[in-house]
């Protein structure tokens, strides 16, 4: 059995404005209810394979408590299933991913986790096929 690293470190968070703008301008969209993803493969400037951003719109959830709860659920589902992606990213590249929550009510963790698993496997398949933009 393979041991996976289930940590989610600061290096794996997508924070730079130019990377975020590149992701939303040129990234490929993917929707798996209740999540919409944007992803792009770029030349690596860091030692991580994936950098991730989680977003829950203030327009849908006025209270920060609900936004934070949903964001934590998505982050936890990603943290436990990120191993689905890390093996498929080529050397010298890293993957930028944004998860945006779409539903207008908070859903159960198992629904969010299923959506994250399905979307990560679809992104992994696209990376393996080299079907996404290389910047």
Automatic annotation (TrEMBL):
Which cellular components does GO assign to this protein? ribonuclease P complex
Q: Does the keyword Hydrolase apply?
A: yes
Tell me which domain of life the UniProt entry assigns to the organism this sequence originates from. Answer: Bacteria
InterPro entries, per the entry: Ribosomal_Su5_D2-typ_SF (IPR020568), Ribsml_uS5_D2-typ_fold_subgr (IPR014721), RNase_P (IPR000100), RNase_P_CS (IPR020539)
What are the record keywords, sorted? Endonuclease, Hydrolase, Nuclease, RNA-binding, tRNA processing
Record's Gene3D superfamilies? 3.30.230.10
The protein's annotated catalytic reaction(s) are: Endonucleolytic cleavage of RNA, removing 5'-extranucleotides from tRNA precursor
Q: Give the stretches traversing the membrane.
A: none
Single GO MF descriptor: ribonuclease P activity
- What's the top EC group for this one? hydrolase
Task: Tell me its EC number(s), please.
Answer: 3.1.26.5
Give the GO terms filed under biological process for this record. tRNA 5'-leader removal
The keyword Nuclease belongs to this UniProt entry's keyword annotation: yes
The UniProt subunit note reads as follows: Consists of a catalytic RNA component (M1 or rnpB) and a protein subunit.
Q: What does this protein do?
A: RNaseP catalyzes the removal of the 5'-leader sequence from pre-tRNA to produce the mature 5'-terminus. It can also cleave other RNA substrates such as 4.5S RNA. The protein component plays an auxiliary but essential role in vivo by binding to the 5'-leader sequence and broadening the substrate specificity of the ribozyme.
- What family does the database annotate? Belongs to the RnpA family.
Q: In its UniProt entry, what is this protein called?
A: Ribonuclease P protein component
Query: Which species is the source of this protein?
Result: Xiashengella succiniciproducens
Source organism phylogeny: Bacteria, Pseudomonadati, Bacteroidota, Bacteroidia, Marinilabiliales
Q: Which gene encodes it?
A: rnpA
């Amino acid at each position: 059995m393979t041991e996976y690293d289930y940590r989610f470190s600061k290096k794996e968070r997508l924070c730079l404005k130019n990377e975020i703008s590149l992701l939303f301008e040129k990234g490929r969209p993917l929707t798996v209810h209740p999540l919409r993803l944007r992803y792009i493969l770029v030349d690596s400037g860091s030692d991580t394979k994936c950098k991730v951003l989680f977003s829950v719109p203030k327009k849908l959830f006025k209270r920060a408590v609900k936004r934070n709860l949903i964001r934590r659920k998505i982050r936890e589902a990603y943290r436990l299933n990120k191993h689905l992606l890390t093996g498929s990213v080529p050397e010298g590249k890293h993957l930028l991913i944004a998860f945006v929550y779409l539903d207008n009510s908070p859903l159960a963790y198992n629904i969010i986790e299923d959506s994250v698993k399905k979307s990560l496997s679809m992104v992994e398949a696209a990376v393996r096929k080299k079907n996404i933009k290389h910047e």
